[in-house]
Amino acid sequence: MEITETIKEGFIADRATGKIVDFRKPEEIVRQSYEKELFEDYDYKYEQMDIEVSIQRGEKNSLKNKSERADIVVYTTVDKTKRDPHRDIIGIVELKRPTRKEGVKQLMSYMSATSCLWGVWTNGEEIEYLYRDPKSGEIRRDYVFQIPKNGERFEDIGRIAKDKLPPKMAGRNRIRKILFLRKNKLIKTSKTINAIETVSFMSFLIRFAFPTATAAAP
After folding, report:
1. Which of 23, 60, 85, 87 is the most buried (most CB within 10 A)?
2. DSSP characters for the chain?
3. Which domain holds residue 207?
4. How far apart are CA 137 and CA 126, in angstroms?
5. Which pLDDT score is estimated for 7?
6. Interstrand relation of 89-95 and 118-122 (parallel, antiparallel or unpaired)
7. Considering 159, 178, 210, which residue would you say is the last residue of a domain?
């Protein structure tokens, strides 16, 4: 996307939309990084994305609708002229600066008010994935560890249910800090998680992914 206007120092053109954004803000650094990840790792086109999107919730002219905006919205179509702002949303990403932890409930409210199928909360160091239950329509947080690629469904990628987790790993905050799965299969761990817990969870993942092989091991 060609940018013709002069950009002030510290500002950049958003990689997905070309809109001018303040790159001095920590949360903007997180946004540019995650847009790249959506494109490179999950095959979503930049043309499918928009930023700072107002989501209609409750009364049309409420102050909340005017002041709160979704950080990244992913649509089903690349054609902006044919988009329904609420019915054509695939995913929503809520971003925070690295030191911030809140925002998951806000993301859930965005998802509930739209057609959104998946959501991501991240501050660049921790991440949590949400999804809409295909049967009930309920927004769920139960141990999804990635989002579908463009064209995939959650049924295609699977998820790990809470009752299959080791007892030590059952706390949601623990899980959120331990796992940050990437396409390159690296596991990022928070500094607050000790080595024993990390090894324990990695062992669990191996048992979950390869139950036959581990059962046959002496």
Report:
1. 23
2. ----SPPPTTEEE-TTT--EEETTSHHHHHHHHHHHHHHHHH---GGGEEEEEE---SSTT-HHHHH-EEEEEEES-S-GGG--TTTSEEEEEEE--TT----HHHHHHHHHTS---EEEEE-SS-EEEEEE-TTT--EE-SS--S-PPTT--HHHH----GGGS-GGG--HHHHHHH----TT------TTS-HHHHHHHHHHHHHHH-HHHHHH--
3. 164-218
4. 26
5. 81
6. parallel
7. 159
If one compares 119 and 5, the residue with the highest pLDDT of the two is: 119
More confident residue, 198 or 118: 118
Residue 184 structure tokens: 């390159």
Mean pLDDT, range 113-141, rounded to an integer: 90
Nearest alpha-carbon partner for 125 in 148, 96, 153:
96
pTM of the complete model: 0.71
Token pair for 87: 């019915």
Does 79 have pLDDT greater than 60? yes
Amino acid at 187: I
Does residue 170 surpass a pLDDT of 80?
Answer: no
Token pair for residue 207? 């048992």
Burial of 105 (0-12, 13-18, 19+ CB in 10 A): exposed
Residues 125 and 188 in one domain: no
